[in-house]
C-alpha cells in the first residue's frame, strides 16, 4: 500500500516554499524518470526544459495566469514537444536501436519503412497532437515519481505556451511548450496540503465487466 500512501501525499501544490531547493540528485531523478517514460513507438518526441533561475521564473508568472508557483518553486519543469518529426527524426531513432541493441539492418528495415510511411501521412497538427499526448504521459509519470520521492509539484496547463516559447527561446531549440510542472517543497501555510481529496468513489470510477 506504500504506493497509495505516496499518491495520497501528492497534491497540486498551490504555494511553494521559495527558500527551499531540491538537491541535484533529486532533480537528476526527475530527469531520468522523464527520459524513462514510455512513448508511442519509443520515439520520445519530447524535451524537458529545467529552469532553476529566479529571475526567469518571475518573468513566467504573468504568462502563467499569475500563478505564483512558477516563481516560488525550486525548479520549473517545462514539458515540450519536438517541432519536427520527419524521416530524419525517425531514422535517428533506428540508429539508436542499432547502436544500443546491435540490431541487424534486415530486422530494422521493414519496421523503419512502415513507420516512415505512416508518419508521412500525418499533418503537422496530427503530429503535434500525437506528441502532446506523450507529454501528458510524461507528466503523469513525473507526478508519481514526485509522490514517491516526496517532492512537491503542481501540474499546470494554466499558462500561455506561445509566451513561454518566446521568453525561453524555445523555437531556436526546435521545441514548443505543452505543460508546466513547478517542483520543490510546499509552503508550511499552503492550506491546500490539508484539504481532503475530491474523487469519485471507486464504484463510480471503475467499470468491471
Ligand atoms: C493537466 C493538468 C493541468 C492542471 N493545471 C493546473 C493549473 O494550471 N493550476 C493549478 O493550480 N492546478 C492545475 N492542475 C491541478 C488539478 O487541479 C488537480 O490535480 C486536481 O484538482 C486534483 O487535485 P490533486 O492533484 O491535489 O489531488 C492541473 C492538473 C492537470 C492534470
Automatic annotation (TrEMBL):
The keyword Oxidoreductase applies. SUPFAM superfamilies: FMN-dependent nitroreductase-like. It comes from the Bacteria. Keywords: Flavoprotein, FMN, NADP, Oxidoreductase. Residues 7-185 form the Nitroreductase domain. Its cofactor is FMN. It holds the Pfam family Nitroreductase. Belongs to the nitroreductase family. This is NAD(P)H-dependent oxidoreductase. It comes from Kordia aestuariivivens.
Amino acid at each position: 500500500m506504500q504506493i497509495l500512501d505516496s499518491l495520497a501525499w501528492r497534491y497540486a501544490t498551490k504555494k511553494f516554499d521559495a527558500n527551499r531547493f531540491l538537491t541535484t540528485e533529486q532533480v537528476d531523478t526527475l530527469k531520468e524518470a522523464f527520459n524513462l517514460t514510455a512513448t508511442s513507438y519509443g520515439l520520445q518526441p519530447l524535451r524537458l526544459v529545467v529552469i532553476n533561475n529566479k529571475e526567469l521564473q518571475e518573468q513566467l508568472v504573468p504568462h502563467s495566469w499569475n500563478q505564483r508557483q512558477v516563481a516560488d518553486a525550486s525548479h520549473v519543469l517545462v514539458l515540450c514537444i519536438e517541432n519536427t518529426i520527419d524521416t530524419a527524426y525517425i531514422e535517428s531513432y533506428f540508429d539508436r536501436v542499432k547502436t544500443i541493441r546491435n540490431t541487424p539492418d534486415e530486422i530494422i528495415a521493414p519496421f523503419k519503412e512502415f513507420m516512415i510511411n505512416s508518419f508521412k501521412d500525418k499533418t503537422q497538427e496530427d503530429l503535434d497532437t500525437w506528441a502532446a499526448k506523450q507529454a501528458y504521459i510524461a507528466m503523469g509519470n513525473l507526478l508519481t515519481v514526485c509522490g514517491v520521492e516526496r517532492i512537491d509539484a503542481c501540474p499546470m496547463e494554466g499558462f500561455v505556451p506561445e509566451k513561454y516559447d518566446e521568453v525561453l527561446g524555445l523555437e531556436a531549440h526546435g521545441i514548443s511548450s505543452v505543460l508546466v510542472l513547478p517542483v520543490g517543497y510546499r509552503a508550511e501555510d499552503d492550506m491546500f496540503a490539508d484539504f481532503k481529496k475530491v474523487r469519485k468513489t471507486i464504484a463510480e470510477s471503475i467499470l468491471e465487466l
